[in-house]
Amino acid sequence: MSRVFSGIKPSGSVHLGNLLGALRNWVALQDEADTVYCVVDLHALTVPQDPEELRASTLSLAQMLIAVGLDPERCTLFVQSHIHEHSEGAWLMECTAAFGELRRMTQFKDKVEQADFISGGLFTYPALQAADILLYDTDQVPVGEDQRQHIELTRDIAERFNARYGETFVVPEAVVPPAGARVMDLQAPENKMSKSEDSPRGSISLLDEPAAIEKKLKRAVTDSDGEVRWDPAAKPGVSNLLSILGAATGRKPDEAAAGIERYGDLKAATAEAVVELLRPIQARYHELAADPAETARLLAVGADKASEVASATLDRARRNIGLLGR
Ligand code: ATP
Ligand code: LTN
Question: pTM of the entire structure?
């Protein structure tokens, strides 16, 4: 059975892009593979955090992952910082990645432009991500389009480590869904929908009330030519609405355009589809949020399962690279 691994940061609330680009795929893969999913709290530390908020968002993200359909009995669901092998593995990865490779990462370049404090961790972030993936002998990494470059780097690191020190790591590949891989911001459709707080009106949180969803979609940026047509280059706003509508109703974006002539109708149809998609997720989330102790228990079971695999892989890497055993 192939091994699947993926991670999501506990920063801000989970949005529609996360769901359509990544989480739905995570859920589906539970039936086909040995799946390992991680709340990557260490990755959230690349920017300063409020300690209480970070703790709360880590727990709440785990609850949201279960609400969207991850089943802790069928997958391994855990918190990254519970498994110390991730931090230790990251050092081995940092020493295997080239400075130039890390410098070329577009996510780093974008964040550097926006951030007023640039931590060292922001730069070495993809090395920690490589450790996450390689510790679990991962074959496939389901992610949105924006993560493709990090997975390519992970492959290069694994191949280089194996070439230098002998077969140690499985070389993984990215699995990017055909529809919804890149959901764009509703107000600035040239940017991806994101958790960052600069554009609350451009992003639909999985916990938004129906009225808020309708309002955000009604105000979504379109264009002035008035034709409902799938054409991401010329019509980014309209095409984004069609991708969302398509992904929410199981169709390709151009098929979703059939029978819709006016932008107002497109927005209303998209809002209705999104509200229906989120309704059961929200109900389940609120149930789980009422019992944090149960979530903590589930995460502890996940950490036990994860630890077994991660420690065996890290031992192998330590040995192969020449660290003295004790
Ligand atoms: P941030 O905005 O803080 O960078 P994020 O929204 O990108 O966060 P992550 O935790 O980094 O969220 O990503 C979790 C998963 O969601 C990743 O697999 C990522 O590829 C996917 N993803 C994130 N944004 C989008 C988007 N707009 N469209 C499709 N997939 C997305
Ligand atoms: N970098 C990813 C989150 C992430 C991840 C991972 C994804 C951290 N570790 C391992 C896949 C596999 C992001 O910013 N979305």
Answer: 0.94
How is the chain split into domains, by residue range?
Answer: 3-180+292-321, 200-286
195 is catalytic: yes
Residue to mutate, 9, 108, 155, 169, ligand 2, most ligand atoms under 8 Å from C-beta: 9
Q: Sheet of 76-79: strands edge to edge?
A: 76-79, 34-39, 3-8, 140-142, 173-175
> Residues with beta carbon inside 6 Å of ligand 1?
8-9, 11-12, 17-18, 21-22, 143-144, 146-147, 181-183, 192-196
3-180+292-321: CATH number: 3.40.50.620
CA of 23 from ligand 1 middle (Å) equals 10
- 119-164 pLDDT, tens digit per residue, is 999 999 999 999 999 999 999 999 989 999 999 999 999 999 999 9
**Which class does domain 200-286 fall in?**
mainly alpha
> pLDDT for 262-290, tens place per residue?
999 999 999 999 999 999 999 999 999 99
What's the CA-to-centroid distance between 49 and ligand 2, angstroms?
18
Ligand 2 within 6 A of CB of 6: yes
Helix/strand/coil for 100 = helix
**CA dihedral over 289, 292, 295, 299, signed as positive or negative:** positive
Q: Residue 281 is inside which H or E element, if any?
A: helix 263-289
Residue 38, beta-bridge partner list: 7, 78
